[in-house]
Amino acid sequence: MIFKVKLKNADDFVRLDDHVYEWLSTDPRYSDIKLLENLRLHSSGCAVFQKVWRKSDGSNKTETIYLHKLIAEHYIKTKQENKGEKQVVSSKNGDKLDCRLENIVYRERSSVSRLRKTKSATGYTGVYREHLRYRAVISIEGKAVHLGMYDTAEEAAIAYNKASKKNFGEEGKLNKL
Fold first, then answer.
1. Are the C-beta atoms of residues 150 and 137 closer than 8 Å to each other?
2. Domain count, the chain
């Protein structure tokens, strides 16, 4: 069963597995701070709990709990220990509010970066207009690799997709055509 939890500052919902919902509802710490009742949509698109606490010295401390990260650390923490690489919690389907265990995955920072939405004016990752043609470029090990010049943005996007599959497999970003 999937639970939908309404966000406090948006018309969106977070989706949780039933046993995750039960854990967050009954855990003394999270029920005390009313974590599920105070989830907000963060500017990054994730669900977060944020609260400002007054410290004994009179100063303030802001506590931020990213829901997807909390769930990953509790249920799939062993995947992060893999090779000691710096990994971040990500979503398989790209929906950061889908916090079901089957959608949460640890990825290397470079993989997460490749999966971000493009800011290219063409609408395709790795495709740039140059005069009357389109250049396809992919970043491999931090270096830009020229893939060719094409007559259309779609042709350049196809070239990018092929290079992405070849070099990054399942972790590679593919342009939607």
1. no
2. 2
Residue 106 sits at φ, ψ, to 5 deg, of -90, 135
Residues 63 and 127 in one domain: no
Strand partners, 107: 88
Q: For the segment 111-139, what is each residue's pLDDT rounded down to a tens digit?
A: 665 556 666 789 898 999 999 999 999 98
From residue 17, how far is each of 20, 21, 39, 80, 169 by CA, in Å?
5, 6, 16, 21, 29
Long-range contacts made by residues 52-59, C-beta under 8 angstroms, separation at least 24?
none
Three-state secondary-structure class, residue 24: helix
The structure's pTM equals 0.65
Report the alpha-carbon distance of residue 174 to residue 164 in Å, rounded. 7
Q: Which residues, including other chains, have CB under 8 Å from residue 157's CB and lie 6 or more apart?
A: 122, 124, 125, 126, 127, 136, 175, 177
Is 90 part of a structural domain of the chain? yes
Rounded distance between C-alpha atoms, residue 52 and residue 62, angstroms: 4
User: Rounded to whole angstroms, how far apart are CA atoms 34 and 114?
Assistant: 35
Structure tokens at 85: 């690489």
Higher-pLDDT residue of 22, 113: 22
Q: Would you tell me how many other CB atoms lie within 10 Å of the CB of residue 12?
A: 14
Task: Kindly state the DSSP code that residue 108 receives in the 8-state scheme.
Answer: E
Residues spanned by the domain of 151? 117-171
